[in-house]
């Protein structure tokens, strides 16, 4: 029997066979606090899954979410301070986030916007959307519009098409970028109608797909990505470094190889944000740097994302990957190769 409904409660997860009833009984407070949603497609994969499997850890609620540490905050990356009108976050001069919708196909347990997304978070109404588009239209220095949310590919193709056309018609907007979990969470949604809604005549549309584990790149997901790539849309990925899911060099290697094989360039590996109740997912920065360093020797440059930290307080993202270069121009540089061997630069020349 093909499932048709998204599970939005503990009972729904139990009925789908994704969560054992005795585990569900202990999770009432988690369900009261944070939204639950798992698509039919992912329920098929979660049925009977071990609670600590990479998919279960990402999508099924856990009592660890009730532990909020002092440094965690509702707005971990400080979006609120940079929001001039509803639905817009304008932190960098040349680009804005446009959040037309707060709903996602799934609610990831580690989400950095977990206090903003969900059934309580509403979409922009027609006037609010018009005001957000006006904000972009009136500012010539906005070159890139990043559609995020929520998940922008949850909009109906008709509404999506209207927004894309409005942005495409603004001469200063060069790039419309979508951040989405749809290919991973609900690949059937990448339909012919959706692809035609993403057609532009002037700007470039890019899609950044959110994917954290090689098990998420199933045949269905890979086929959905192929449809986007065949439509001429360049694809990049973003992943979050998650303890117990992908904090392992072999897992990251498999993930990035599969992404590149699916014509997706790994873009960012995010260090876990300080979202409430997500401490069990966070690694140390030193662990992240060590993992990324190990990848350097294992996979090609195409498979290397930038390891980034979104600085709490709204200061933007900073690359925090390992440094291969030390020293300075006067004293001379030392550069480390992929095996960890250090070399002087420029090379020391032997005196005769
Ligand atoms: C992450 C982010 C962007 C995009 O940053 P890139 O480095 O261009 O991917 C833009 N605006 C805001 C507010 C962001 O948080
Ligand atoms: S899809 Fe993205 S925004 Fe939505 S819950 Fe998952 S991490 Fe958060």
Automatic annotation (TrEMBL):
Domain Radical SAM core: 90-298
Domain of life of the organism encoding this protein: Bacteria
Keyword check for Nucleotidyltransferase: no
Gene3D superfamilies tied to this protein: Aldolase class I
Binding positions for [4Fe-4S] cluster per the UniProt entry: 104, 108, 111
Record's keyword annotation contains Lipid biosynthesis: no
GO molecular function, one term: metal ion binding
N6-(pyridoxal phosphate)lysine modifications at: 317
Sorted UniProt keywords: 4Fe-4S, Iron, Iron-sulfur, Isomerase, Metal-binding, Pyridoxal phosphate, S-adenosyl-L-methionine
Homology family: Belongs to the radical SAM superfamily. KamA family.
PANTHER family: L-LYSINE 2,3-AMINOMUTASE, LYSINE 2,3-AMINOMUTASE-RELATED
Entries under NCBIfam families matching the protein: AblA_like_2, KamA family radical SAM protein
Protein name: Lysine 2,3-aminomutase
Organism: Skermanella aerolata
């Amino acid at each position: 029997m093909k499932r048709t409904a998204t599970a939005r409660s503990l009972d729904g997860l139990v009925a789908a066979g994704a969560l054992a009833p005795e585990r569900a009984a202990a999770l009432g407070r988690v369900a009261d606090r944070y939204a639950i949603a798992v698509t039919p497609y992912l329920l098929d994969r979660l049925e009977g899954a071990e609670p600590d499997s990479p998919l279960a850890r990402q999508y099924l609620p856990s009592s660890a979410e009730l532990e909020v540490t002092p440094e965690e905050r509702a707005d971990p990356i400080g979006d609120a301070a940079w929001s001039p009108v509803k639905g817009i976050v304008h932190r960098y001069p040349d680009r804005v986030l446009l959040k037309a919708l707060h709903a996602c196909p799934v609610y990831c347990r580690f989400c950095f916007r977990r206090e903003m997304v969900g059934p309580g978070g509403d979409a922009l109404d027609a006037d609010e959307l018009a005001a957000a588009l006006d904000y972009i239209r009136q500012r010539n220095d906005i070159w890139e519009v990043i559609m995020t949310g929520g998940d922008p590919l949850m909009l109906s193709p008709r509404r999506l098409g209207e927004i894309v056309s409005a942005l495409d018609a603004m001469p200063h907007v060069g790039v419309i970028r979508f951040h989405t979990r749809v290919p991973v969470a609900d690949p059937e949604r990448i339909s012919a109608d959706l692809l035609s809604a993403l057609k532009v005549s002037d700007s470039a549309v890019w899609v950044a797909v959110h994917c954290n584990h090689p098990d998420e790149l199933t045949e269905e997901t890979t086929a959905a990505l192929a449809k986007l790539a065949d439509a001429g849309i360049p694809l990049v990925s973003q992943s979050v470094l998650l303890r117990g899911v992908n904090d392992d060099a072999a897992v990251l290697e498999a993930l990035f190889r599969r992404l590149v094989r699916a014509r997706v360039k790994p873009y960012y590996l995010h260090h876990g944000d300080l979202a409430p109740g997500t401490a069990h997912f966070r690694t140390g920065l030193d662990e992240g740097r060590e993992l990324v360093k190990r990848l350097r020797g294992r996979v090609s440059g195409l498979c290397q994302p930038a390891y980034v930290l979104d600085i709490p307080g709204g200061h933007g993202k900073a690359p925090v990957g390992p440094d291969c270069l030390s020293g300075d121009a006067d004293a001379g540089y030392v550069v480390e190769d992929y095996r960890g061997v250090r070399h002087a630069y420029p090379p020391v020349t032997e005196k005769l």
